[in-house]
Structures are given as C-alpha cells and as structure tokens.
Amino acid sequence: MAVAIPPGGTFFDTMKRTFVDVPILAEKDNGIPTTEFLEAAESFTTVFDLLGSVAFTPVKNDLLGNVKKIRDRQLAAPAESETLQELVQNEQRIKKNTATEGLLWLTRGLDFTSQALRDNIANASNELSSSFRTAYGSTLKPHHNFMIKPIFSAAMSATPYRKDFYAKLGEDLAKAQAVLDACIAALEKLVGILKDFLATVGLKV
C-alpha cells in the first residue's frame, strides 16, 4: 500500500498519532490514556504495509482485532475507561476479560514489533528477517500454538531487504531513522508500563 509522504517529511507524518504523542499520566499512577494509545496503535500497524507482503496481513489484523476489543469496552463504559489501567480494573470487577485479554495480546504484539525494530536500528548489519525472528522468539512465540507459529514464520521470511524498508520511511534517511528511534523509544516505555501492570492481573493466556 503506497502512502504519500509529504515533501521533506517521513512516513510517520502520515500517521494520525504516534506513540510519542501518547502521554503517561503520573497523577494516575502512570496511567495511559485509552483513546490516544489506541489511535497510536492503529496508526503503527501501517508499518506492516511498508513491509510489503500479504504474509504480514494476519499479524496486522491480529493487532487491529485486539484494538477493537479494547475500544468496544471503552465505548460501552467510557467513564470507567479513561486509561487502559482503569479500563482493565473496571472490566475485572464485572468478571469479564475480553478487553483485558485484548490488551494483553496487543501489548505482546507491540512488544514483538518494537523489539524487532529496536534490534534492527541497533545493528546496522542485520536484515529485518533476522531482527524479526529474534524478537518473535523472545516475545510471541512462547504464547503461540502450532497453528499460529507457521503464520508468523511465513511473515518473518517475507520481510524486505533492510535498505528497501528504510528507503520507504522518507527521502532523508537520517531524519527518518531518528523519528523511528523516537517512536520506538516511546513505545518501549509504554509497553514496559503495561507489562508490569498486566502481570498483576494474572491472566493465563
């Protein structure tokens, strides 16, 4: 899917919101605003379009499906869902786990993607396929069954060459990489907060 990058801009300028634009509310015990986070997560899935293979469609759809589960709960109980943490706590009170499980899997999927891109940024000689395989092994793979693993394996094998991927991020490679690095750094911080919080919920999925 081709995207129109503005002159002098980067691929991230085409997103409605990036993770850099998601505040962390210290006054709410590092609460993460639900609306802003879901908008950033939706926007971030367009990175898979840049990878240019239908093999990544199931990965993208999985992330978007989990976004929908969380947003459905937010729409059903907006006053109780201002932050992701509040949304989960209030859903737990009514003995439901749909959105909570959605957030758990969304967090895992974003952790996988951020670790893959972080590895690729940090290791200039690594191809994307290597970075994604390494990240998959330490994030999603332990939670996937024998039916899901081949789908993700196919996606790993379908990643483009490193140079081709970065060329799609913008004409100014240094600028594009700096923006990517900032986005991933913000996502890593958010994922860390969510992983610590979800560990206290005790879901067995």
Overall description:
The protein is mostly helical and 205 residues long. The chain has a single domain (18-199), classed as Glycolipid transfer protein (Glycolipid transfer protein, GLTP, Orthogonal Bundle). It has helices spanning 34-44, 47-50, 57-76, 84-93, 98-122, 128-138, 149-157, 162-167, 173-199. The radius of gyration is 17 Å and the shape is globular. The chain starts with 33 loop residues before the first helix and ends in a 6-residue tail after the last helix. The relative contact order is 0.15. The model has no long low-confidence stretch (mean pLDDT 91). Residues 32-171 form the Glycolipid transfer protein domain.
In short:
Helices cover 60% and strands 0% of the residues. With 205 residues, the protein is mainly α.
Strand content: under 5%
Q: Give unreliable regions as ranges.
A: none
Distance between the termini: 33 Å
CATH topology: Glycolipid transfer protein, GLTP
CATH class: Mainly Alpha
Total number of domains: 1
Instruction: Give me the CATH architecture, please.
Output: Orthogonal Bundle
The assigned structural class equals: mainly alpha
CATH superfamily: Glycolipid transfer protein
